[in-house]
Amino acid sequence: IFGIYSLHYANVTVGTPALWLLVALDTGSDLFWLPCDCSSCVQGIESPGGPTIEFNIYSPNTSSTSSKVPCSSDKCEQHRKCSSPTNTCPYQVIYLSNGTSSIGVLVEDVLHLTTDDDKINKPVEAKITFGCGKIQTGSFLNGAAPNGLFGLGMENISVPSILAKENVTSNSFSMCFRSDGIGRITFGDKGSSDQGETPINPRQSRPTYNISITQISVGGKTGDLEFDAIFDSGTSFTYLNDPAYTLISETFNNLALDKRHTSKSTDDLPFEYCYELSANQTSLKYPVVNLTMKGGDQLLVNDPIAVLPMQGGGVYCLAVVKSDSVNIIGQNFMTGYHIVFDREKMYLAGKHPIVTISRLQTLYR
């Protein structure tokens, strides 16, 4: 939701009484934070073509199950900023997007989880640590995560890590991204026996869901090259540096059937390769994009393009952005997949619920 830079969001309920908030699901960061007694945060946002969504704001003072995390806690990573061990633990997270951050203090409260176990008729209440975000800056104020960020990374402070440590669930979770934007996140899910598996190679400095890609195929034309990439549901598009970016974009461009769009300064498009659509065009064909990952599993990209309205018609673009740093598989490449993040066995597993034989055999979609 929320325009071209869309992410996947989930309604979560925390505290007592339970308060719901609409948080962005982010496998690329660790801390779960909510807007909280804030001096700089978003109170609501206009939905595309719909009414304004009014947001709840969390307050520890209104939850009977809330408690402050002291600086003396082993969960307080920024204890050096404390003047006393009895003070409330501060946090500050600075994100890759320019000028984007969240600042506040750590608290503990209950996260209400529904269960698939028929024997349990009420939600599971899991005690977790999260950020009481008093100040949000940058893209958090204009749509990226206006009502909180659900950290799903590999550090000890992330939601999956806490749930596993407290024996609420096994050390694994899954996310299902349907093409219509509806999805599901399931903690403790280890997937099925027929899923493909790809080893996770966490970076030493900061563990992430880092995997190796060994091959790119565009429209049946294949290039062998090996590079690492981070699976990050908190990034809207896929970012690749060279040589992977040049291979995927130039091959896509050579096989594209429509006229390439001549970009203007007023377009404000993040993509380099876009193609024109007429005002009455109801369908389009574009080259199929496949990635082969280490271990042999394939990521058959269901949605490699972004369709954008423009005056007199519209354009569709290869939704891949050139990166000057790390390679990121964004949420757009995860569409149509049930992806398991097994942190115990250290692998990603993917199962495509909507692939058909005809789709596997065609070079254009």
TrEMBL record:
Instruction: Tell me which residues make up the Peptidase A1 domain.
Output: 8-351
Where, per UniProt, does this protein localize? Cell membrane
* Cellular component per GO, a single term: plasma membrane
Write out the entry's keywords from A to Z.
Aspartyl protease, Cell membrane, Glycoprotein, GPI-anchor, Hydrolase, Lipoprotein, Membrane, Protease, Signal
Q: Which GO terms describe its molecular function?
A: aspartic-type endopeptidase activity
Domain of life of the native organism: Eukaryota
GO BP annotation list: proteolysis
Protein name in the entry: Peptidase A1 domain-containing protein
Q: Which organism is it from?
A: Gossypium mustelinum
